[in-house]
């Protein structure tokens, strides 16, 4: 033997992320850092109005401005017939307005592009944009979903005849996965031993607020058009650019360099990407666009925005008998790439961890004059989890039961897995009892309940609430046949390649391109473990269609459970090839070759060769068996059989200052079952970030529009994001019930915290106030909303809150739309 | 985020700065720490033709004791203000309020003079200057003049500083031995004040002998809560007495209404927070 066989223990090791040094020090290059020589800069002139006819555009002053190459409208680009892709039609009847690259004759949301300015510098393009004179004839904005679907509503896209894009229904009665919910409700209404709980919840509109604003550079000077984009989906972008603009796919190379976050907000194909391609082709020069933060908040797609009407029926003994879900989902002005699919993902999650015998889900997608909505961390599943976890608390209150005990009565027991749910999914594994028991102990549930009782009894101005969320999610998008059944425009597989280099080092290629998650570290650990090579000898390559030609990219907690398994499959192929060559070189039968820790050995002897030696021998190719190619490299494409189903129990202790309404998250405990863990450090980071985002929906964030359809809090001054100072130190713990649907036993983790935490917080807020008569506080549960809810419960009338008004209180009074001149004395 | 074009000068003396401002006319603007002005420029909500940067004038920085006064140069950073021992000892309320401004990065760049001259009613330091009867020293072409805080804040983003003038110093009387507290209520730790109360209290034998209370974001300017001050004097520093006095806090206010807080909520908050601020100050 020429190499020592030290066992490689990489899987499960809490390695610091190898990416961090270059990301944190600013050494790396993001898209905006890339400026090929001769680059022209694009600025988009956007509509300040939500709905208007364009009656005239005077470009002359802008065209004459210093450095300006040209000012272009949709007609100038000859792109009137080009529609941005929408790949997730819900039904064949879906009414889908074509989204143009720039508004043609009508603008449909504030922030929609109307023209672009191209100049030699970004500053010149920005200056000239102010000189483009656009005349608008205002039209009635369409803002409220219920008003939008009323008979007398202004129709946003007259050619469609309606603002209802589609209605999608899942009914367990007709699907054969359960009973009829209509019958369950009728039976419950007629049964004195049953209860019917009807609640309406609102999922407010959120802005993904990724750290790196979007940016695109298109360089047409080579044989291929080279596009850099700050995107989550370079492969989808390449194919969609080809389909949208007719650029032959082989003439297009897309690179997503290091990308500074996305949260679903960069799972899109955007007008600016297509405009940069068109302008670069037209002028033969590189064209670049980088958005400002304000532009990003206004024009990049938003998330959530649903009205949920839930009807839950149960026996008075606590057994749930039926759930009816009716959603209105705001799509914004057009259908985003995957927009309508987002709320429909919730169809499979409203039943959550519970055994519900009858279930129906009806989702109506609505067009309004607002920014488009699309994927945002969790995408459909946080909304569903919120709805079911809120209504389970309502049922517990109705029946006078402890909310955790009521949940346990209805959830799937650990011995019942695999379990086929009323929504038709088969949950492979789980142990809700285990996660819950650990969480309750860590939280001191009994002790906090006693403290709550004491504070109630003494009338403490600071009241305590306990919020529960026992969640599961489907992650790892997705088995291709499932996507096909949902009319999604592509498959859900992932691709991987492994290249064994002559010196024994390894290049790993993945189609799941990260945008901050740490794939390079985690994937390196998986391959190190599989091949028995040192972690530092592996480089993970991604995000460039020339390097990683096949891929489905990163979203839906799919990278590990789909992309990671593809790496395992490719590793197995490498080992199988190497085994043949090892047998040949060791003059042994292939059947006698054993492989462990990077060493091929002959059973029963001390003869062996390291995989690196095999790699070099294969490179030299002087001596290898007949009938095979001298290569160890392997490709794999993995299409999962099923989703994986992480779950967990999240508990929040909420203190509310009843004098001011201030909500203080005192303690947060979560025990997540995410199966086997590749890198505990990365997993914990994902949980922490996810929690912050989910808690933020509950307490801080909301995109507000005024009655004219203007986004009024489109800066970080007034769109409230929390910092570490606003959140407690989380108590997180992981338990592992391995997934049985993949060979690593892994589950996704990237969205778990976001999906679970929002209802835990709101349940806690309401639990703190329930004895005062408060039954609902809309999200975000701001101090003002909480205070008003308390006043209402006490029968004290308070005044209406203007949602659309800036004041000096915004700090930047000068960005008040009522003070548009920005008077700063 | 690209601002409109502007000219830029960085004079080395107050006299040169005044001259530059006068030459620049009404479209000239002073930049101090830039923490309020730069966002406005980058959003193109203001488009001055000339920026006069005061960062190159050493005499505008620093804190000194002058008899019964603590004098703070207008270009002194928040950080230097809150870390200064003489401020901590004699003008404790100023140090306490300054510590709540935004975050550490802003506190290292932003300046006391800049904050007062910007006169954002949601800014924290106007209420402190008003409550403590600070004096503003303003330099212009014809020399310097001193304006009491009570006359300094004129309106929303408007002060007594005239065209071509520069705020050079803020002079605080010493409040040695007083108790003080700045009670700030905001949506997130680094957000602007929804409402905040600046309170300085001198007690004698358990009773309130003197009280000074300033309000942040309860009108178009910082506001002095004189009704509360009058009601507090002579009262014992007990919760009941202080809360009763705090009921008068809305006298003379014009609380703004916005998405974070409608005016009735702000008025309610002001009462609750005034009680808390005074009790904390009275220790």
From TrEMBL, chain A:
<dbReference type="Pfam" id="PF02738">
    <property type="entry name" value="MoCoBD_1"/>
</dbReference>
<feature type="compositionally biased region" description="Polar residues">
    <location>
        <begin position="816"/>
        <end position="825"/>
    </location>
</feature>
<dbReference type="Pfam" id="PF20256">
    <property type="entry name" value="MoCoBD_2"/>
</dbReference>
<dbReference type="InterPro" id="IPR037165">
    <property type="entry name" value="AldOxase/xan_DH_Mopterin-bd_sf"/>
</dbReference>
<feature type="region of interest" description="Disordered">
    <location>
        <begin position="796"/>
        <end position="825"/>
    </location>
</feature>
<dbReference type="InterPro" id="IPR016208">
    <property type="entry name" value="Ald_Oxase/xanthine_DH-like"/>
</dbReference>
<dbReference type="Pfam" id="PF01315">
    <property type="entry name" value="Ald_Xan_dh_C"/>
</dbReference>
<feature type="domain" description="Aldehyde oxidase/xanthine dehydrogenase a/b hammerhead">
    <location>
        <begin position="25"/>
        <end position="140"/>
    </location>
</feature>
<keyword id="KW-0500">Molybdenum</keyword>
<dbReference type="InterPro" id="IPR008274">
    <property type="entry name" value="AldOxase/xan_DH_MoCoBD1"/>
</dbReference>
<dbReference type="InterPro" id="IPR036856">
    <property type="entry name" value="Ald_Oxase/Xan_DH_a/b_sf"/>
</dbReference>
<dbReference type="InterPro" id="IPR000674">
    <property type="entry name" value="Ald_Oxase/Xan_DH_a/b"/>
</dbReference>
<dbReference type="InterPro" id="IPR046867">
    <property type="entry name" value="AldOxase/xan_DH_MoCoBD2"/>
</dbReference>
<protein>
    <submittedName>
        <fullName>Xanthine dehydrogenase family protein molybdopterin-binding subunit</fullName>
    </submittedName>
</protein>
<keyword id="KW-0560">Oxidoreductase</keyword>
Automatic annotation (TrEMBL), chain B:
<keyword id="KW-0560">Oxidoreductase</keyword>
<dbReference type="InterPro" id="IPR016167">
    <property type="entry name" value="FAD-bd_PCMH_sub1"/>
</dbReference>
<keyword id="KW-0274">FAD</keyword>
<dbReference type="InterPro" id="IPR051312">
    <property type="entry name" value="Diverse_Substr_Oxidored"/>
</dbReference>
<keyword id="KW-0285">Flavoprotein</keyword>
<dbReference type="InterPro" id="IPR016166">
    <property type="entry name" value="FAD-bd_PCMH"/>
</dbReference>
<dbReference type="InterPro" id="IPR036683">
    <property type="entry name" value="CO_DH_flav_C_dom_sf"/>
</dbReference>
<dbReference type="Pfam" id="PF03450">
    <property type="entry name" value="CO_deh_flav_C"/>
</dbReference>
<protein>
    <submittedName>
        <fullName>Xanthine dehydrogenase family protein subunit M</fullName>
    </submittedName>
</protein>
<dbReference type="InterPro" id="IPR005107">
    <property type="entry name" value="CO_DH_flav_C"/>
</dbReference>
<dbReference type="Pfam" id="PF00941">
    <property type="entry name" value="FAD_binding_5"/>
</dbReference>
<dbReference type="InterPro" id="IPR016169">
    <property type="entry name" value="FAD-bd_PCMH_sub2"/>
</dbReference>
<feature type="domain" description="FAD-binding PCMH-type">
    <location>
        <begin position="1"/>
        <end position="177"/>
    </location>
</feature>
<dbReference type="InterPro" id="IPR002346">
    <property type="entry name" value="Mopterin_DH_FAD-bd"/>
</dbReference>
<dbReference type="InterPro" id="IPR036318">
    <property type="entry name" value="FAD-bd_PCMH-like_sf"/>
</dbReference>
